From TrEMBL:
Keywords of the record: ATP-binding, Chaperone, Nucleotide-binding
Protein name, UniProt field: Molecular chaperone Hsp90
Membrane-crossing segments per the record: none
PANTHER family attached to this UniProt entry: HEAT SHOCK PROTEIN 90 FAMILY MEMBER
Species the sequence originates in: Lacrimispora celerecrescens
Family affiliation: Belongs to the heat shock protein 90 family.
Length: 667
């Protein structure tokens, strides 16, 4: 006798909300129905362990998904514990539907601004996102249970009667609505299953009732009783004609006649029921870690190294975090951390659980204890979630400091790749910064990696408590050469993150000053000026300033005249450290396309070398025919070696250079 009923949901107000709410994630019903099947199987396995149920010997637990594009349907079939009629009534008619209603009541006003992580809690009901009609055929594992057939058109009225399912388990069939037909395409189905179900704990098989049958050929001894033999293939013996000892031709058998079978292609599960993170770290090989990385992240660059998280107490958390090889020119610094709950995919990069700076890594984290059916803002304030996030941070810091201490060689090798990540971590997370502080490295001009204290120690004699750094290798090449010639050292801090990081370092190390290599000329490069020459040099400096101001048509120009040891250097530009940092900050806050030079080239000083012949020539020929041009040229050369010229100056520079060459050529 069929039982009919009305699901106590008012369809007019519920459906629009559900549809809008789940609009972007319609595919989620796959996850919900497959994980319900997994749960049903897991429960039955538990009953077996408890001795309450005896598993038939030849039974393999599995979930089958069959797409049918002709019928426009998808079938989900599990051999889990099934349901009796009372259970369908309770779990589906009452709980699933009232659950959906509660859920909506609670979240309908927050649909957009406060998303619920992974939309957990909608379960079975999510089938109605994509289907007009849903049927359930189920048979409980309990002895003597009768099969149940249930169906509902549209999700508000149902009909339930005795069914004809002969094997225990549950089969749910969705007849898709017109907007959702994509989901019965086998390739689309595979894509969604890859996204949500790749690591679910029960084997999942996908097939399509409309696709051509596929076959494979196996050796005779590989045949099992599960295979369907289509054809027996007899491979004839292979022979070869050779000459025997007596010079007579002879036919010998190279390989004997063989029997092979053409069988129906054995089904291959779409998922991996034992993801690597569940294995004990001691049992995982390097190759396993690498192939897992390739498979999950589709990244064919090898990861540098990884951390296997494995924690049972006080919470359960497993996962693998990989440090990817960065290609700083092309890759944005953005990784992916995939979050799972008992092998069910939730979402990528959930910042409430995973510290922001760790999102530069690639990895998987499985935390069955996470309260996922709550809103994101609630999760943010959850002490438990904070603990998880702290634990992950600590583990990452431990790994890095451990490597610094016991495997310095590799740590140095990885430094160029991992330093942006570590520095970002220092800026974002105080605890991480504290832990990692002594393991920070600085690459110097010789390509050696030094800690800050090594750096300070090595340069104690020449410039105590200050560290020179290079912020742009190309722009500062002239200074780098001068430093090298003078036996001075500097460190490379050339990544974008280094500009805020230098500020951070000074804050942490109050008595240490970081100076860009072009910020000032150290006494080391200068010759000492004799007391009796100082007066004359001062007058010359004033004269040069005036000449340059006139030539460059500038009212004010900072000019410094120095006796540099290297007489070949004529002019240079230095930028005071404060104004350099100010400009960097401006650069960070300006819109792309805006010219940072519009904030003025403040803090720039033109340094002229008193020991240079051209500078002396200018002093000797203040009214010379070419003096103006030489001044301009010297200024532009200094600007060029310091960075770049504005387009207007560059045009003039090229024209003037040509004129100067004409003078040289005397034509
Ligand atoms: N394939 C199945 N086999 C056996 N029981 C099932 C199956 N699918 C659903 N059920 C029963 O119906 C109930 C309701 O399912 P539903 O998916 O709506 O919620 P849930 O799985 O309990 O919670 P969640 O919101 O996490 O999905 C389940 O708790 C389960 O008892």
């Amino acid at each position: 006798m069929a039982k009919t009923g009305s699901l106590t949901i008012n369809s007019e107000n519920i459906f629009p909300i559900i549809k809008k709410w789940l609009y972007s994630d319609h595919d989620i019903f796959y996850r919900e129905l497959v994980s319900n099947g997994c749960d049903a199987i897991t429960k039955l396995k538990k009953l077996e362990i408890m001795g309450e149920w005896q598993k038939p010997e030849d039974l393999n637990f599995k979930i089958e998904i069959i797409t049918d594009s002709n019928e426009k349907s998808i079938t989900f079939k599990d051999n889990g514990l099934g349901m009796t009629m009372e259970e369908v009534d309770e779990y589906i008619n009452q709980i699933a539907f009232s659950g959906a209603q509660d859920f909506l009541e609670k979240y309908k006003d927050k649909a957009n601004e406060d998303q619920i992580i992974g939309h957990f809690g909608l379960g079975f009901y999510s089938a109605f996102m994509v289907a007009d009609k849903v049927t359930i055929d189920t048979l409980s594992y309990k002895e003597g249970a009768s099969a149940v057939h249930w169906e509902s058109d549209g999700g508000t009225e149902y009909e339930m009667e005795e069914g004809d399912k002969a094997e225990f388990g549950t089969t749910i069939k969705l007849y898709l609505n017109e907007e959702s037909l994509e989901f019965c395409n086998e390739y689309r189905a595979k894509e969604v299953l890859d996204k949500y179900c790749s690591f679910m704990p029960v084997a999942i098989y996908l097939s399509s009732s409309s696709s051509e049958p596929q076959y494979e050929t196996i050796e005779k001894d590989e045949l099992t009783d599960k295979d369907t033999v289509i054809e027996t293939i007899i491979e004839e013996a292979k022979t070869e004609e050779t000459e025997n000892e007596n010079g007579e031709k002879e036919v010998v058998e190279v390989s004997p006649a063989k029997e092979k079978y053409k069988i129906k292609k054995r089904p291959v599960p779409v998922n991996d029921v034992n993801p690597l993170w569940n294995k004990h770290p001691n049992e995982c090989t390097e190759e396993e870690y690498k192939s897992f990385y390739r498979k999950v992240f589709n990244d064919y660059k090898e990861p540098l190294f990884w951390i296997h998280l494995n924690m049972d107490y006080p919470f359960n958390l497993k996962g693998i975090l990989y440090f990817p090889k960065l290609n700083l020119n092309y890759d944005s610094l953005e990784g992916t951390i995939k979050l799972y709950n008992s092998q069910v995919f939730i979402a990528d990069n959930i910042k409430e659980v995973i510290p922001e700076f760790l999102m530069l890594l690639k990895g998987v984290i499985d935390c069955p204890d996470l309260p996922l059916n709550v809103s994101r803002s609630a999760l943010q304030n959850d002490g438990f979630v904070k603990k998880i996030s702290d634990y992950i941070t600590k583990k990452v810091a431990d790994k890095l400091t451990g490597m610094f201490k016991t495997d310095r060689e590799n740590y140095e090798k990885y430094w160029d790749d991992i330093n942006p990540f570590i520095k970002f971590g220092c800026l974002k997370d105080e605890k991480f910064a504290e832990k990692i502080n002594d393991s920070l490295l600085f690459k110097n001009l010789d390509g050696k990696y030094l800690t800050l204290s090594d750096c300070l120690e090595e340069n104690k004699e020449k410039h105590e408590n200050s560290v020179f750094y290079i912020s742009d290798e190309k722009e500062q090449s002239q200074y780098i050469n001068m430093f090298k010639e003078a036996g001075m050292d500097a460190v490379y801090l050339t990544h974008n993150i280094d500009s805020p990081f230098v500020g951070y370092l000074e804050q942490k190390n109050e008595n240490v000053k970081f100076l860009c290599i072009n910020s000032d000329l150290s006494d080391i490069f200068k010759e000492e000026v004799k007391e009796e020459d100082k007066e004359a040099m001062k007058a010359d400096a004033e004269a040069l300033t005036e000449l340059f101001c006139k030539a460059l048509n500038k009212e004010h120009l900072d000019v410094k005249v120095e006796k540099l040891k290297n007489g070949n250097v004529s002019s240079m530009i230095t930028v005071s450290e404060e104004s350099r940092r100010m400009q960097e900050m401006m650069k960070m806050y300006t819109m792309p396309g805006m010219d940072p030079s519009m904030f003025g080239a403040g803090g720039e000083t033109l340094v002229l070398n008193y020991n240079n012949k051209l500078v002396q020539y200018i002093l000797g020929h203040k009214d010379g025919a070419h003096t103006n041009a030489i001044c301009e040229q010297l200024y532009d050369l200094a600007a060029l070696s310091h960075g770049s010229l504005t387009s207007e100056r560059m045009t003039k520079f090229i024209a003037r250079s040509n004129e100067l060459m004409l003078v040289m050529a005397e034509v």
